[in-house]
Amino acid sequence: MAACENTISPGANGTGKPLYGLFQYSTNMIGLESLADPSDTWEIIETIGKGTYGKVYKVANKKDGSLAAVKILDPISDVDEEIEAEYNILQFLPNHPNVVKFYGMFYKVDQYVGGQLWLVLELCNGGSVTDLVKGLVKCGQRLDEAIISYILYGALLGLQHLHNNRIIHRDVKGNNILLTTEGGVKLVDFGVSAQLTSTRLRRNTSVGTPFWMAPEVIACEQQYDYSYDARCDVWSLGITAIELGDGEPPLFDMHPVKTLFKIPRNPPPTLLHPDKWCRGFNHFISQCLIKDFENRPSVTHLLEHPFIKQAHGKDMSLQKQLADLIQAQQQLGSITKTRYCAIHCSVAFN
């Protein structure tokens, strides 16, 4: 297997690791002095989640009222390479319906907490596929196989777009596949993505979330002569497929560090109850989870898999089904919250 020399994450500027937040961002990192103040354009409406390095908010455009999501990065140090990698990828990646749109980066000066970097992105207000499947599992239900096929089809199209642009996502998982309320499927969170040059088509830096990490990516952490390519995203998508079926990835109840020892040594995982799912879904997962990545199919090959092809030509009807499911889950969530408040408020006042 071909190995590659040590690599530096895209965006590393060779000037050391600039500190930011309480220690002011380095202006030569991504030209902070040229970034606009977000307060002129965007107004925060509410918190909608927490990303890799900071909170995510829903924001409104002051000029036209359009909505977006903003990732406001925490005032901590030593994550500049990941931030710059995400910025570089989002800035130059052509738009694609299955990849979240990038609206710009802003810099807000604050003398009390330090400067804040704002990454403004397309708002995917249907939540993540993890949110959706966990909500169903709580109700004793599961995702329909046709909907799973549609979600995986969208994720594969998004990954194909990244790979065609020589980008490995490296952190594919349910929480990084977002949904719109119209049933759109979008890849998000490029904080640990790798850009590949024509002379370096493999990586040997280990990143990702342990439960979803491919064996060859874990091997790079342990042996410097190991490498991997874009097919590590295929393994992670296979684990995500199991997550869509079972509600959790394999080994989810194990300590994350222990999984790093188990994944390379265990046989490829399967659904908890394979017999309760169709042969096509089981076979798709088995193809994604071929341990030797040299024999693992690419995303382009997997787009032709029979389980995925069932979504071809049915995009609109499956998108409508997914949109209805998202709406039902969101309404159920609102009812649950209302009941919670009613119970706890009555206890508090009695």
From TrEMBL:
Family annotation (InterPro entries): Kinase-like_dom_sf, Myosin-III_kinase_activity, Prot_kinase_dom, Protein_kinase_ATP_BS, Ser/Thr_kinase_AS
Sorted UniProt keywords: Actin-binding, ATP-binding, Cell projection, Cytoplasm, Cytoskeleton, Kinase, Nucleotide-binding, Repeat, Serine/threonine-protein kinase, Transferase
Residues bound to ATP: 71
GO terms, molecular function: actin binding; ATP binding; microfilament motor activity; protein serine/threonine kinase activity
Domain Protein kinase: 42-308
Keyword Cytoplasm listed: yes
GO cellular component labels: cytoskeleton; filopodium tip; photoreceptor inner segment; stereocilium tip
Major subcellular location class: other
Subcellular localization: Cell projection; Cytoplasm, Cytoskeleton
Any one Pfam family match given in the protein's UniProt record, by short name: Pkinase
UniProt record, GO biological process: positive regulation of filopodium assembly; regulation of actin filament length; sensory perception of sound
Family the entry assigns: Belongs to the protein kinase superfamily.
Database matches in PANTHER family: AGAP011099-PA (PTHR46256), MYOSIN-IIIB (PTHR46256:SF1)
The protein's name: Protein kinase domain-containing protein
The organism of origin for this protein: Alligator mississippiensis
